Amino acid sequence: METAFEEGKRLARQYRGSHKALTVKTMLDQLIIQPRPPSPPPCSLGNVLTAEDMSDTLTRIASVHYERREFDLALAYHTSALQLCESVNPLNLASIATNLVGIANAHRAKNELSEALDYAKRALTIRESIEPIDEASVGKSLGTLANIYLELGDNTEALQAGMRAFDIFQRILPSNSPESAGLLNNLGAIKLRQGDIAEAQQYFEQSIRIYRQILPESHPYIAKLKNNIEFVSRMQQKELEN
């Protein structure tokens, strides 16, 4: 009668004889019952992309498309983010306002100014209602409104919104902030539209001084302001000649 050891050797020889093409390791892998992988742990909120995370992701994608001047895609992603945020977390007013501004900017870029104005107003109303108030966000919304009003030809509303934004930026932002520089340029454009050439030049010169602190001289913003200042100077010269 075979011992267990001898029987084991015989079975091993038989198995190897019928699987001559296999290496020892491969045979062992086949003979040994591999343990089943552990079941994944139950999903937790930390491992799941929440609806709020998805809304934030859509907002970021929209911003990328806007920077690439893909305004239709920016509008679509901001709209999806807004709808998702309003449905799952209507109390997240900051995110809702951010997407409203994004939609307004996309419409403005597509020259759909009436739609842009509507969304920009909604964003401002929400941002002014948040407690504690985020003045920087309110100022940016006012700046957006000023740009839209300017393009609509409503210089009075444009100046009012722009000056409110400028007052906020002066209080809370560094003196050389890009937001202030951009707003000063836009205020210059509003004043120029109103025929106030001297004040327009002052705003343009303030703007270019800030941009020269934070941007290289070859930057398009500086080139644009140089053109604005040169244009205003020519207008002043013509007034003197007349």
TrEMBL record:
It comes from Rotaria sordida. Keywords: Repeat, TPR repeat. PANTHER family: NEPHROCYSTIN-3, TETRATRICOPEPTIDE REPEAT PROTEIN (AFU_ORTHOLOGUE AFUA_6G03870). Pfam families: TPR_12 (PF13424). InterPro entries: TPR-like_helical_dom_sf, TPR_rpt. SMART domains: TPR (SM00028). This is Tetratricopeptide repeat protein. TPR repeats lie at residues 181-214.
